[in-house]
Amino acid sequence: MISFESDYIEGAHPAILEALAKSNMEALSGYGSDSYTKSAKEKIALACGLSKKQSNQVYFLTGGTQTNQIVIDTMLRPFEGVISAQTGHVSVHEAGAIEFTGHKVLTIPAHEGKMKADELDSYISDFYADGNHEHMVFPGLAYISQPTEYGTLYTKKELTELSQVCRKHKIPLFMDGARLGYGLMARDSDLTLPDIARLCDVFYIGGTKVGALCGEAVVFTKENMPAHFDNLVKKHGALLAKGRLLGIQFDTLFTDDLYFKICRNAIDRAEELKSIFREKGYKFYLDSPTNQQFVILENSKMTELQKSVRFSFWEKYDESHTVVRFATSWATTKEKIEELKKLL
Amino acid sequence: MISFESDYIEGAHPAILEALAKSNMEALSGYGSDSYTKSAKEKIALACGLSKKQSNQVYFLTGGTQTNQIVIDTMLRPFEGVISAQTGHVSVHEAGAIEFTGHKVLTIPAHEGKMKADELDSYISDFYADGNHEHMVFPGLAYISQPTEYGTLYTKKELTELSQVCRKHKIPLFMDGARLGYGLMARDSDLTLPDIARLCDVFYIGGTKVGALCGEAVVFTKENMPAHFDNLVKKHGALLAKGRLLGIQFDTLFTDDLYFKICRNAIDRAEELKSIFREKGYKFYLDSPTNQQFVILENSKMTELQKSVRFSFWEKYDESHTVVRFATSWATTKEKIEELKKLL
Amino acid sequence: MISFESDYIEGAHPAILEALAKSNMEALSGYGSDSYTKSAKEKIALACGLSKKQSNQVYFLTGGTQTNQIVIDTMLRPFEGVISAQTGHVSVHEAGAIEFTGHKVLTIPAHEGKMKADELDSYISDFYADGNHEHMVFPGLAYISQPTEYGTLYTKKELTELSQVCRKHKIPLFMDGARLGYGLMARDSDLTLPDIARLCDVFYIGGTKVGALCGEAVVFTKENMPAHFDNLVKKHGALLAKGRLLGIQFDTLFTDDLYFKICRNAIDRAEELKSIFREKGYKFYLDSPTNQQFVILENSKMTELQKSVRFSFWEKYDESHTVVRFATSWATTKEKIEELKKLL
Amino acid sequence: MISFESDYIEGAHPAILEALAKSNMEALSGYGSDSYTKSAKEKIALACGLSKKQSNQVYFLTGGTQTNQIVIDTMLRPFEGVISAQTGHVSVHEAGAIEFTGHKVLTIPAHEGKMKADELDSYISDFYADGNHEHMVFPGLAYISQPTEYGTLYTKKELTELSQVCRKHKIPLFMDGARLGYGLMARDSDLTLPDIARLCDVFYIGGTKVGALCGEAVVFTKENMPAHFDNLVKKHGALLAKGRLLGIQFDTLFTDDLYFKICRNAIDRAEELKSIFREKGYKFYLDSPTNQQFVILENSKMTELQKSVRFSFWEKYDESHTVVRFATSWATTKEKIEELKKLL
């Protein structure tokens, strides 16, 4: 049985386990005040084109939903909600984690997982034009994911336009980068980390799905980390006593471009996987340039394939077809792709 | 200047003010434990076809959003959200009051303000079919308004179907009746209070917009009032020390069918208003059988009319037209309608 | 049966009912945008020594717990809690309404219901001295009640000291004035409304317990009303559609010093009541200069008295004695006091 | 520089790192559905004297505050709060994480960190005796920590009494076991894991401070895990995608009694440390039988010692003395103790 079920089926990149083992008996102080965390923050600030001093604007959290919840709750004012594409993770697949903090998710149309700058602009403009808007939730933050939940990517032009709309309306732009590395390494992607740091007000660099055991690195790009952020993280139940666990992992990922290299592997394997499916005459649900590939399978074929391959059910396509997801990752080998080829 | 701005522009029906004055110096105990509140609850239980004992399932709150917030928050379990039509008041015009309590509003399509039973059924069925649904907000309550925010009404057949879908999926059905009286008295309405009490699990009879200074009467129809409801109301900041204010008003409204009589007036005036607009060649945005009428005005006509009549902006229709709302109420006189006629 | 059960057993001062009746059929716009509300705000600003322009810093809410909840929630930052004396209403008798908004109530010792300036100062200083304080709730607001839950009063000297401590630590001082009028009119009270407006950052003038059917007038004294306060009030479910109900009542109470005159009556009756109890040899639990009197009754005497007088159980004193409360109000007559005298 | 700063200064027990490395490239499904998590749950159920089937009542979370927050929020009904000793972690050092979920922490006196059964009993009885209790927060859960924040322990007799009080009043008993292993292995402790599982309704076995990189194992002992617990954990932002990280760690800790063995080391080292301090004439703040030792240092001595040893400031003792904490752990070596001895 081979598995393309998700990009979090393996543990961590071996270099991370080595770093954890090597530093294991060092006595380090807790709650993110250790030297590895400090080093990781500095490396990330540097990779984002920020100053070393701005490394205090980098913060490590444990998982994606937790990060979305904390960033959104702490960036919004009490009368504001967050705008998301209808298919956005925060709107659909976080079990109400945003609303749990008292904030509404305001949705606008999704186009293969993406929001359009002009639709965002209209949404906000219409809000203020509505005579009744004092009885409504104010748009206070725009949430996007890169890659999106459908594996698609914003181009530099699109992100620039979104950023301009946000600045025009004075709301911050937040990018969920749970799989950011796979987006950065996609073949035609024209966005760099410094671009993202410049265009977004806050974003995070995913670790959990990109080679770490757990961990997401939040970057506040405009010296806009909320006051007493440590305390707010604690209040959300999200402060790790052994902050080293996150610090060491990101320190490793951002040493010698490891983060980028392992993401390239995922992309290379995904491109191979795409070729194989195409050659075999399969249809894709949409064209994804990243590590998640959405294939339309005949139901009978799906049942047959499930005997030897694991993949994710995504949604019903029609009576006789289903959309399923195959994910590659930092850990996917060429051999696994070859094996899949034989089964198709 | 005459006003059709809303159905809450006047104070209270004179009989209410008289009752308040008459009882004013009686020493009554607080927090809804007084005799007027008791009497009002019994009259309402009776009008709903419930037993006298079930009068302990009637509860008075102050306003509509407060009532929606408290009912939804106390009826939902922590992993559940409330399903509403996209145009539902709880989804759009309550400033996030539902989300403030930690619950998501789950939306389905609106058809002139109404949800369709089959779409509700599909929504819930699809939710359970989704392999990912443990990461999603469970549908836990269906919210409808009668009349809707667009003045439209569910028929007995439609409400029965919604009720059946809710029972099939074991979720309660909640009716926002902020303007319920106007719906009950609409000319072709085939729903009675006992029908509503039978088909819904909880609903409320609006006072604020139907002749009272303030107040909504919540009715839990299946002996399903949440435990320690008094305490929960207090926790929401909604327990009035002088509960008599609500009790006396509803006691008056439910004496000698006053509630129904004054609603009939609103409907009669609305029908006259409709005829006038029709005669003068105006177009309606939709066909409303209740006290709220949505008219499409040419923008220049609108500007002219605003000099002598107050009405509400609803939404932009197209570049040169606007949808506006004219509301009648228990207090609207024939004279006022005549005056409007002259201005059109 | 005569009742001294509380100060909210009667309806409203007759002048209020008259004003409601007189204005009843005027078409007024909703949500506090009417002329009576505007007038009431201006009169209150004036009575507080504020400018007419600052009348936009006056806001009407419905009840005491609601007001405490909204003021505290909207004045605190997310990492802050409110400091209260251990016996404070927000700490003990609001069913967790403050915690419902996500904020902790931090308690310091109570001295007959009051907090001491030096203990408040120590509490805050110790907080910042604690090496661990980033894991604790920051003190963000000081809450006091005037009169306190025990009928006692802060003197001008005491309030000045509290105010100085708050300014030193840069946290606002909030006074719960649910019974403020009775405090202002107490015989030896040396605090005026302008004093309170000067020394506190926000406070409210109680209506519910001081002659109104419902209503509390919040005053933000330093142009510090939270942004989009209307929206926040709506989000808390506390925005009345018929704002006139609150506006007309406060407009009446602040016309010709009515608020102060009716409070003087309560104080005069309370002083008579105190004399009678003293003459008859009863002991007081503490010395209250306001309308709430706490008497220690032998249990057998209490049982006897309950046959003809209503009063409130307060707390057990010892095995054979109980502390009970007798409350006078704007509505208490000399005749009622005489009647009580006969029963003692 | 040697460090006794806390019990979370080192990484993980080497056996854990080995297990993580060994399983690293296995493809495992996410969110706690993997085989290691299943195995760990079974081993823990067994160690607690529960049935194998009850292993579905074991759940892994990431950290202590997170666990307290989730257990308390999901076990309480909306009108309830949690009772804690005044020094309880949930009351003092969690940045308001409990209140963030809308629940009050109700405090009773602490006796060297412990609550007394009779005081708990009185608190609940008095609550129901209070005429006003419908306006108060209902006691809904009792929270204790074992060892307490002061290193002290409940005896079997004390825990039995607390359990009886809780059952009498029908509220669950919750034990915070962030350092449970150190309590179980304390020399005179007469409580076993099965005792705790029998006497408590829910408790957790700490990993973060007891040899793991992170992780706490919650055990619901009466088949009382809240419905849809996975979903509720997600809603709190606490569901790890790579659940294996927690499963593998606890599987290792509960293989061959590793958890107990490493805790014994901490106790042995703590006893040595106590002897050394006593021999040198130092005084203890209280008598702790576990891995946290609270010593009273002269301020000048403290300053001197800080040059070569790290320990934690606890609280001011008097003008010239300070209470400080020395913590041993699974990782503390005999050599480190010897080194400390030389410095005293």
What does this structure look like?
- Four copies of one chain form a homotetramer.
- The first copy, chain A, is of the alpha/beta class and 344 residues long.
- Chain A has two domains: 92 residues, Aspartate Aminotransferase, domain 1 (Alpha-Beta Complex); 244 residues, 3-Layer(aba) Sandwich (Aspartate Aminotransferase, domain 2), CATH 3.40.640.
- Chain A has 14 helices and 13 strands.
- A seven-stranded mixed beta sheet of chain A has the order 2-8-7-6-5-3-4, sandwiched between helices. Chain A has a four-stranded antiparallel beta sheet with strand order 9-10-13-12.
- The longest helix of chain A has 22 residues.
- The model of chain A has no long low-confidence stretch (mean pLDDT 97).
- The interface between B and C is large, with 53 and 54 residues.
Concise summary:
With 344 residues, chain A is α/β, with parallel strands linked by helices. Chain A has helices at residues 14-22, 35-47, 64-75, 89-92, 97-100, 117-129, 156-168, 180-184, 193-199, 229-235, 244-253, 258-279, 299-305, 334-343; strands at residues 2-3, 58-61, 80-85, 105-108, 138-145, 173-176, 202-206, 216-220, 283-284, 292-298, 309-310, 312-318, 321-327.
Would you spell out the secondary-structure blueprint of this structure?
Four copies of one chain form a homotetramer.
Chain A: E1 2-3, H1 14-22, H2 35-47, E2 58-61, H3 64-75, E3 80-85, H4 89-92, H5 97-100, E4 105-108, H6 117-129, E5 138-145, H7 156-168, E6 173-176, H8 180-184, H9 193-199, E7 202-206, E8 216-220, H10 229-235, H11 244-253, H12 258-279, E9 283-284, E10 292-298, H13 299-305, E11 309-310, E12 312-318, E13 321-327, H14 334-343
Parallel strand pairs in A: 1-11, 3-4, 3-5, 5-6, 6-7
Antiparallel strand pairs in A: 2-8, 7-8, 9-10, 10-13, 12-13
Helix pairs in contact in A: 1-11, 2-11, 6-7, 12-14
